[in-house]
Amino acid sequence: xxxxxxxxxxxxxxxxxxxxxxxxxxxxxxxxxxxxxxxxxxxxxxxxxxxxxxxxxxxxxxxxxxxxxxxxxxxxxxxxxxxxxxxxxxxxxxxxxxxxxxxxxxxxxxxxxxxxxxxxxxxxxxxxxxxxxxxxxxxxxxxxxxxxxxxxxxxxxxxxxxxxxxxxxxxxxxxxxxxxxxxxxx
Length: 186
Hints:
single chain, alpha/beta, globular
């Protein structure tokens, strides 16, 4: 098992298995680093898992989650091979972490994923989110759990994230949100 140095708040959430977990907070609250840790932990603990990391554009994805995951893998001494042209990292246990922009929803059709991490989900439409949620159907996730981990900056009450996570809640057991502050960034 990968060991992480976490704040108390992060430690509370690191093993959370809620199907849709939203992490909110202001800039500098440690959302991306925490979610990168959690994503790596899933890939390490679930051999042959297919993990997808998404953001609205590839340049934005490369500058945030992809960079943080690469740095963390290196710092933790976790062996991986990177196919930079396809934006896929393969861990020694056979798990893959693929990085895909959401500028064209055709790129996500037919995917079978065990774990999904969406960086800055307020940048995408509810329809794209729903399409991604349908992709959480990989074999590894069926044997333990699958999760859609989302990061968002606080949004207006009219945004789909607010409605989905704070108001409607399709099933309380499936949706959870947590707010990080700058105190949650080690």
